[in-house]
Amino acid sequence: MVYGNNTHTTMYQHDGEEIFVIDGHVHLWDATEDNIKHDGGEEFIQCFYDYHTTFTPEARQWDIDEYRRYGADRMVEDLFSNAATDMAIFQPTYLTDFYTEGFNTTEQNAELATEYPERFVLNGTFDPRDGEDGLEYLEELHEKYEIPGVKLYTAEWRDDSKGWRLDDEDAFEFLEKCQELGIENIHAHKGPTIRPLNRDAFDVKDVDDAASSFPELNFIVEHVGLPRLDDFCWIAAQENNVYGGLAVAAPFAQNRPGKFSEIMSELLWWLGEDRVLFGSDYALWNPDWLVEEVLEAELTQEHRAEYGVEWDIETKKKVMGENIAELYDIDIEAKRRAFQDDEISQQFGLEDHYASGEPAAADD
Amino acid sequence: MSERMPDGPTRAAVRDRLDRVTDPELDRSIVDLEYIDSIEIDGEHVSVAFTLPTAWCSPAFAWMMAVDARDEVESLPAVETARITLAEHMHETEINRGVNERLSFAEAFPDADGDVEAVRAELDEKARIARQYDAVETLLEAGLDAETIVDLRLRDFEAADIGPNTAQSGSAGAAIDDETVAIYAADRSFAVSVPAAPLERYLEKARETAVVSESDEKLFRTPEGEPIDPESFDLVHQRGRLAQVNMSSQGGICDGLREARESRLEKTADD
After folding, report:
1. Residues A181, A142 contacting (CB under 8 angstroms)
2. Which Gene3D superfamilies does this one have (chain B) (predicted)?
């Protein structure tokens, strides 16, 4: 292996059961100095890098230069070479005011997604501040790539604006367009407060109104709203089309296991096991080690007793793949069969692994 | 070196005041969180330097801590001025200038929309909910039931040191840990004695957020500030637990980011 120290060449198995992993949140970004046109771009990647080093085992940390741009080959290797993940969903982050060619656009992601369409799902984006042009762009993405979802970044700067809200009238127009085009999965980044300065642009409360106004759409709140887990869980408990993406919470499993147990217990208590979705946030964190950490994590005795929830094999299967497969109409068994001889499996010698992974027909 | 400069405050007194300043997102003292780098006392002039876990900590939160530190230290009679210096932050220039020149947030950050008070109020309310959880746990452990707890009023608490002016001093340290407070429950038909600290911490925030001010008002509230219906007691209590988990999770992120930054700075220093 070129990059990782892949000691695990088998698919993730727990008690003999195989877990199909769909990484719901990956990026292919370019934060090289040549691509940065605003100080915010440098601050942004440095901030990511701090998160990376904070929650990555020391031996698996990257240096800042490889972190700025890792490229398609390495990404494929990191995701699939040891079958840490079986599929992944691209979530674009444009940031075109910070980066000349954008940070992680649908077009940039498409290069890889179209090369391995059976392994990747490609999402688009919209920004209501773009008005008519934005609606046209959304249609264009739909026509060109048949995007099944969008990733939204409500705190993105644009000219004088320091962000927007999902419950704005303009945003509703775009959500209507999504509904019309069959773009059902709305991923909203709700992460730490950085900018704008005072207004909380990653406030999750705008999801409430949007979710109840568009019951046919699925709203996936990335980073489970941290540091607004409380607001997020409360909204999700009332809106059953609201889901929680585990990016940022997942790597707690590695160096804050007690905290991971507590957060997972809260999520399972408020949302239930059907609405929590795994995502690595690659390359913030690498599924190469993260998937295993999350699967091997345990809830503490105290939390299991307090919340009455379990992080057991059935729950893991749902959170790591089945739940998001449902949202994206992915047939896991068909995928398993297809992966017995697809290009990725041939490249990494995973044919046997998928062949042996076929469960008994009567399993359903 | 004497601890006390002529006519100035003691270092302990300054630390004690700083201990009252919380990181608004975590509801923990900035002294406990080890944000304070140095305290310098020159007669009636005090300088405090502090650093946050990352350079990208919310400027609004950084601003609140800097202003609160200034105001707390200056509330000491022996202090004429407090100078606050935030280091290693992406907006340290604006914050240091604004706080020391006594500008408003809007003046210090012309490109921000409005002031920080709404953000502060929201975080105070979350802190109240999280503190309520501990207070209610204390009462449950003492054997009170849900119906009794939701019916408690401010006047049902009796302790020599619980009053509008003393709750603050009570919150300052661990000294009150073994103190107890009497609660007169069920229309004062019986009393129980419980540890005072969680209740005092709750009362402090309940007063700050103005959900409870009159002695006949119900003490415990939903996150929306309403009295609690006995049927929804469990759910409200679970929301308090959730508010705590949210704060401590964010605390875990902040701790981690600070460790990462420190180890990076050490590595740079070694090169």
Report:
1. yes
2. Fe-S cluster assembly (FSCA) (3.30.300.130)
B11 Cβ contact list (under 8 Å, min separation 6): B3, B39, B41
Q: What ipTM did this prediction achieve? A: 0.89
| CB-count burial class (<10 Å; 0-12, 13-18, 19+) for B102 | exposed
| pLDDT exceeds cutoff 70 at B167 | no
Give the number of A-B residue pairs with CB atoms closer than 8 Å.
102
CB within 8 Å of B103: residues ≥ 6 apart: B97
Structure tokens that stand for A5 in this block? 């120290």
Q: Note whether residue B264 is domain-resident.
A: no
Mean pLDDT of chain B: 88
Structure tokens belonging to residue A69 = 């741009």
- Across residues B254-271, what is the average pLDDT? 78
Is-contact B194 B181, C-beta < 8 A?
yes
- What is the CATH number for B28? 3.30.300.130
**A199: helix, strand or coil:** coil
Joined together, the tokens standing for residue B161 give 């040191």
On the CB side of B170, how many CA atoms lie within 13 Å of its CA?
A: 26
All domains in chain A, ordered by first residue: 22-122+273-293+313-345 (no CATH), 127-245 (3.20.20.140)
Distance CA B267, CA B271 (A): 6
The tens digit of pLDDT for each residue in A103-162 reads 999 999 999 999 999 999 999 999 999 999 999 999 999 999 999 999 998 887 787 787
* Number of domains chain B is built from: 2
Structure tokens of A266? 């809260």
Nearest-angstrom CA–CA distance, B14 and B39: 8
**Which residues of A lie closer than 8 Å to B, measured between beta carbons?**
43, 46-47, 50-51, 53-55, 162, 192-200, 226-230, 233-234, 248-249, 252, 255-256, 259, 262-263, 266, 269-270
> Based on the domain organization, do B60 and B152 belong to the same domain?
no
